Amino acid sequence: MAARSNTFSPKSAIYSQNSMDWFADIVADLYTIEFQKRGLPHCHTLLWVSSSSRIRNPVDVDRYISVELPNPTTDPLLYRTITTCKIHGPCGLINPNSVCMKGGKCSKSFPKPLNTHTFFDKQGYVHYKRNSSASHTLNNGIQVHNGFVVPSNRRLCSKFNAHINVEYCGWNMLIKYLFKYISKGVERVSFGIHNSQSDSAASSTGNNIPIDEIKNFVDGRFICPHESAWRLFNFNIHVRFPPVQVLAVHLEDMQNTTFQDNDNLESVVKNPAFGKTTLNSWLRSNRDDDSGSHLKYSEYSKLFRWDLLHASGIIGDDKEWQSVFDDAALWASCSQLRKLFCHLLLFCDVSNPLQMWEYTWSKMSDDVRYRFRSVSSSNDDYVSDDILQQQILLELEKDLNGCVLAKSLSDFQIPLPASNICALLENRLLLEESGYDKEELHR
Predict the structure, then answer these.
(1) Per its UniProt entry, which superkingdom is the organism in (predicted)?
(2) How far apart are CA 90 and CA 359, in angstroms?
(3) Which domain holds residue 434?
(4) Is residue 67 situated within a structural domain?
(5) I want to staple 273 with a disulfide (CB 3.0 to 4.6 A). Which of 89, 205, 313, 403 is the partner?
(6) Confidence band of 417 (pLDDT split at 50, 70, 90)
């Protein structure tokens, strides 16, 4: 329940009604889900705004971020949210035993200095406006002021009644947030287990215990029940929008090429896609068609993406997945191949699923053909392709329905099995009557 209740997408909060009042015109976002010590999920999000909405002076910061206690009379609900969810500690002189205190100081640098206005320092860090007139008394009797308030967006806190920390990321702080909070990954620990008796015996004899670093190194990770449920439900851990296409930049005939060690160099050079990059494909396309000559290199793929990339052989033909399937067909059973086909549909961005089905269905049919022949009373071992395809489609539909994502063939523009296929497959007499070679009959 905790995993499901926390799966609301940050996009629903960011792009919902009145989002212009929250964070102006958002053009890109990135977020990562992490799990706290007690297991509850929380989200780190980065937002990029359009050039027209970019913060250019300290007054713009005050429109979106506040670190002051609201008025308890005019805004009691927000006041309750801020005082219960957005107060750090308290720590410092009023509570020196707080867990954040290290060496007599708060490790998070609270309480923050009180300022009459928001300003940027020489390093580009923002110092928020913190009025000195407001204060609040906690349940334990300790009185705190605006120096203990964590930055937030008041509209977000009012809507979700939750701890949602909001910071302005500019200049040096942008690097900190990008790499420390978004890309730091899960916490890890290295530990070793030794026999205490052998350790004491070795120390008494003066012998050093040989250390095998590879053997002793254990990359351990604790996965709490909440994270396990989150991953079993296949909820997103990392999301970014919009997708990013890396554009190649190189001198003429100086582009990188990639191939396997055992590839035949002559075959590599003769490959139509050899040496083609987004840059020389863009130049070649502009030479042949000047309808996009007014677009910059970075803008060209907005209008000519598929034509450009398909024509250059960079993406779009599913040959990679066909090759994967061909390799698996040499050793895998038909049941395993059908599961592989479903996996490709779900997780590998197959560009043309129907074409992939037409290419692979016969490789998934051997066990179905064998079952039909084993129950048939006829000496003719022929089974029509229509019947085989219907049975395989039925098996694939069952596999897709039973996965965590609960998908269907129709989601990938692949035809569903006929509605009466179950009755047909269970009727042996009808199967024998319909199991003839139509092409041979036409001859």
Answers:
(1) Eukaryota
(2) 65
(3) 319-442
(4) no
(5) 313
(6) confident
